[in-house]
Amino acid sequence: MRTLKHPLSGATYDLLDDGLIRVESRTGVVGIFDKDGRWQSGELKQCDPHMCVWIGGKELLNRFQAAAEALHENAS
Known about the structure:
Low-confidence stretches: none
Mean pLDDT: 88
Order of helices and strands: EEEEEHH
């Protein structure tokens, strides 16, 4: 599970197993949102859609990790 803390609001954004994002405000109010920041359920009805994209979007290949693995394989 990936988790991010919003630098301004202090809310936590947790990626759930089903791909939705659980957002908990600093005061403990919780809402569930999709990867584009659209409200799905819960008492909290607003979030930062950019944070949802960051945590819920497609995980890209780390090109630096891939390059390091390739160098290691070629050295063997």
